[in-house]
Amino acid sequence: MTTVLYDVAGPVARRRTAYGTVAGVLFLAGILAVVLFKLGTNGQLSPQLWGVLAKHDLQTLLVKGLVATLQVALTSLVFSLAGGVVLAVGRLSHRRSVRSISRAWVEVFRGLPLLLLIFFVFLGPSSFGIHVSTFWALVISISLFNSAVIGEIIRAGIQSLPKGQAEAGYAIGLSRIATLRLILIPQGIRIVLPSLVAQLVTLLKETSLGFIIGYEELLRSGRIAVEYLGGKYAIPVYTAIALFYLITNLALSWAARRIERRTKTKTAAKAAPEVKPE
């Protein structure tokens, strides 16, 4: 039996939706046309200007920045996932002290602005004579922030599982930790995998904050190129950088939707009753 929580749109509502969609597309197309006209009037669309993207030195600089961005993103992802699993287990612990510490960690690092956290990690240790490189300052800050977010995502996935999963583990003699490690965490991560992939999109964009402390990631490499080439080349260079982020994040979002569809399909197939022929 299917429960409908909203009224099915009738012919008039569907026509209004179609008209609204067409109007929205036309409005956006009009804005884009005006922007392109203004750029063309100011000479920002000339082939000579955009041809700078074909220069080998610029491509080398941007690729170097891209590699630096991916290094921070992948390293932060590993630490964030590891910390998230630990926090999720801590939040589900039977010990009140462990739950309190884990909850305090999540509330503190999830509540702090990431930019402020980057400044704390990069500038704070220098007061005690400890030097932290821009790479590790960025990795530590992003990992602390995202471990709190990912920990809550994984905890939600584990709590969404039927209680019978844990009880089955205890019934065969598994300890609490073994039940979490072998049964609950793998299934919980599988359920929230689309959300984890979506968080990766956010994490990748957060690497651009390394620009503030001088880490030469993709955005700062673009800034260096613009300072060297001249301000008139800013739009082509930053457009190329924006396209990289857009294409990468669209690919990750597509992967998240595909994973979600596959997970729902497999779940529905397992939940469907098996009909045996008479």
List keywords for this structure.
278 residues; mainly alpha; 11 helices; 76% helix; 0% strand
Largest sheet report: none
Q: How many runs of DSSP E, i.e. beta strands?
A: 0
Task: Write down the Rg.
Answer: 25 Å
Structural class: mainly alpha
Relative strand content: under 5%
Flag low-confidence runs: none
Percent of residues in helices comes to over 70%
Shape: flat
Intertermini distance: 25 Å
Q: What's the helix count?
A: 11
> What order do the helices and strands follow?
HHHHHHHHHHH
Mean pLDDT: 83
Protein described:
Helix content is 76%, strand content 0%. The protein contains eleven helices and no strands. Helix 3 (56-91) packs antiparallel against helix 10 (218-229) and helix 9 packs antiparallel against helix 11. It is flat and about 75 Å long. The mean pLDDT is 83.
